[in-house]
Input
Amino acid sequence: MEPLTPGHLRVPGKTEPTDLIAQARAGDTQAWGDLYREFAPAIFRFCRRALPSKEDAEDATMEIFMKLREKLGQYDTSRSFTAWLYKVAANHCWDALRRRKARHDKDMEDVDELPLEAPEPNQLERLIEERTSEEVRKALDKLGARARMALVMRYYSDMSYDEIADALGVRRPFVGVVLLRARHELRQALGENSPLAVGGAR
Amino acid sequence: MNGTANQNNNHPDEITLLMYVERQLDRDRAQDVSRHTQTCERCLILLRALDRESRLLTRSMLEEDEPLPARLAEFHAKVKRSMQWIWGVVFATALLGVYLLYAGYIEPWQRQFEQAGFDGTNLLSLFVFQSAFWKGWQSMFSLVEIVAMASFAGFGLFLIRRYLKRGSALAVVFATMGLLMATANPAAASEFRKGESVQIHKDEVINSDLFAMGDQIKINGTVDGDFFGFGQNVEVSGHVTGDIICFCRSLRVDGQVDGNVRDFSNNVTILGTVGRNVTSFADLSTVESAGKIGHTLMTFSNNLIVDGSVGRDFLGFFGNATIDGSIGGEFRAKGRTLSIGSNASIGGKATYEGDKPAEVSSSAKLSSPLQFTKTQHRSQLQRGPGYYIWRIIWAGAWILLGLVLIGLMPRFAVETVEAAERYGAALGLGVLVFFGVGIAAVIACITIVGLLLGISTFFLWIVSLFASYVVAGAVVGRWILGKAEEHWPLIGRMVLGVVIVVVCTGLPYIGGWIRFAVWIWGMGAIAIAVYRRVQPIIAPNIPSMPGGPVGTPLPPTTTVSPA
Output
């Protein structure tokens, strides 16, 4: 089976299209078009996972690329282009979610104050065994915006804890807590109406 | 870091295990966890479960469950620039359309009206700009103005809100309202009278425009301005120096009116003198023998009697008419029956179109014989070749329009066709747009919101009315040939569909209803597509394709140290 990657990104051994990036930075519209076609599917999927609807994701993708084009001159070529791309995308989606006030109240709660109950290991194993990717994606829709955003940043675009902390505006040590809480929320969503529900008790 | 329990027996808590899986622990703590999991089966199982959970998450995220939408196939800023360019073309085309409309229709009519002696004014002046027809509405309908202005400001804000922060948007709204207020002509001083019975006594003089509302309105005195009447029975036996504009059941003018009379009533009777023109929309219009109209009479009446005199031209559309007075200028009439009595005189050319020839008294004084044209009543089943030629021409026109629209706005065309396939929404919104936009355009025209905006809105409404055939055609084509979003296949389907739609709308009896359905369907689809462009709908989550069960190894983003 071919390895799954976000679009054409992060394929082991595949280098970033530096020539294309350089040409696009120099104002070559053809190169920009190629760059867009190269990365648009990945960014659209990122937005699709992070935002509540397909239409939102489509709009966000267009807006992100417009932003990218404007900011292309500011891109530091010594750093990863894909990382920069995802940083812009994550910031845009998170801003959009905040603007729309799409978050539930629970997202505003202090992550410090709510203790989490550790799952029963065998039960967690069974839950993971039983659930499909599609079910996980559906369950993602039930999560709060911050939990969802954190999971997408971590497991879709493989962003570091520092990058996630920066995008979500939390201190770096809390990123783990945010991710763990997101997983608990996800398990609860996956286990709804099912005896497989594990952990997540608050 | 806290938030977890389970520290009994020195088991690492869940977050520590998670961070170990994610390789976020420092070396010493990672080694502690590694040592612990070599001896603690429970923690090892949890560690593996967390790792499998990470893999499941990664797989779920990365699976390509839906393709890139068509509208994202190319860089959108490019499309946006194109769109801006297209809007420029559309605007230029609109201007051209307005010019052609003016040059092709309004100006010739204007010339005809001028030749017909309509006071040397042009048609636009007659109806809109200079005429008293609209005068006074602004002050009378101040509430309508405010509502309309707020509606349009809201609509404008709705369109641009994505590009404005709240504060600046409010500033724009208030600035616009202020500008409208500042540039609007201040309403002239006016007198308002309201009551069951409103009367201006014989010696009373109103030195301004008069607005009167009531069951019985009598003007026995003088109104030095325009008179606006809204009531059951309106009687003017005094003197009005301006115009009379009346919406009532019955209007009777005994006195003197120096300006025009514009009347919308069940019956109107002119017994006195009207200095300028009379326009009536009534069931019964009568110009008694004592009645005098200085300039022209234009009437749309079921029954018409003209025993008095009309200084210049006559233009009438009626059921039955009797002319026994004098017409100074040209006579143009269309109706069912016309009788010209012995006392009648017509100074100019006389034409009449009706079901049967007019009965003309031999004593009537006509400067030239009355030219009669029989009205053609053709059954829907008796269509001449001209009808079919015109249908073909129209079909060609719609196909051409479709080619242009799809060529200029390929993505928007696809989105519109997809919107049209949401039948309920498209038809529902279509009804709203079909009627609502027309009403909004009229409100814009009659208030200070502006004639230009009203005409522009109306023009866009007309364009979408025409484009609705293209939309309906494209969907019908997709029904037959299957879905396609590429350029030429979509055009092929549109052409086939338009031909079918044109044939269906030309069917006897039901064709009209099909045409109406096509209009509202197409307009609704266009409205949905436009709406989605300016504000995407928060749609319910779309189910994705099923993925496989967990188990297939993936290139891990994280790894677990061997236990």
User: Anything to note?
Assistant: The radius of gyration of chain A is 18 Å. The CA atoms of residues 38 and 170 of chain A lie 32 Å apart. The first helix of chain A runs from residue 18 to 25.
